[in-house]
Design brief:
The chain is an alpha+beta fold and about 190 residues long. Helix content is about 45%, strand content about 10%. Helix 3 packs across helix 8 and helix 5 packs antiparallel against helix 6. The longest helix has 17 residues. The termini are close together.
């Protein structure tokens, strides 16, 4: 099974290249889910407008991937949907209980909640995609995202991270299994 990270990069690269003629270099970002500096010498504003206008054409796992694309200082900033998280999570087998790190244990706690659609919360999505693409301070951003809300909203966000946790647990397991010398067996 392909990792979500690799699937997103492949689909997004193909989409951008198809509509701009440029194969993007995709990098983690603090401001967006992914970013590309491939348009620093080109018209990033025009590229962002063209891609945003066709964002609904960019799908993955049968769900829309892109919610919007913006240009900032010659960079393209890509923002993804929560729908693609739900679509991918439903294709994965049940997660196995991790034992290696504090962050993995926190993911397990989130995974044990009742299944629900992923909330379309900007801070939560930014945290999820930061972890997926290994952005700076990613784990902290994901764990603290619900804290941007108070009371019942915060509790609701914390209890609706199951599908995100499932994907991140799967991605971590896949990474551990592909690391030379790892004694973790693939599922």
């Amino acid at each position: 099974m392909i990792s979500m990270k690799d699937a997103i990069k492949a689909a997004l690269s193909d989409f951008v290249e198809q509509h701009t003629g440029v194969r993007p270099d995709l990098k983690p970002s603090k401001k967006a889910h992914l970013a590309s500096g491939s348009f620093l010498r080109a018209d990033a504003v025009a590229a962002a407008a063209a891609l945003s206008g066709r964002a609904s054409d960019c799908t993955l796992f049968g769900a829309p991937l892109l919610s919007r694309v913006i240009a900032e200082n010659g960079w393209l900033l890509f923002f993804f949907t929560a729908d693609v998280i739900d679509a991918y999570a439903l294709t994965l087998p049940p997660a196995e209980e991790p034992d290696e790190s504090f962050f993995a244990r926190r993911l397990w706690i989130a995974y044990r909640h009742e299944d629900a659609e992923t909330p379309d919360d900007p801070a939560l999505l930014l945290g999820f995609y930061a972890v997926l693409f290994a952005a700076p301070d990613a784990e902290k951003r994901f764990l603290s995202a619900p804290r941007t809300h108070d009371g019942n909203e915060r509790v609701a966000l914390e209890s609706r991270r199951r599908r995100m946790a499932k994907i991140l647990l799967w991605e971590r397991r896949t990474l551990l299994c592909s690391t030379p010398g790892s004694d973790t067996r693939p599922s």
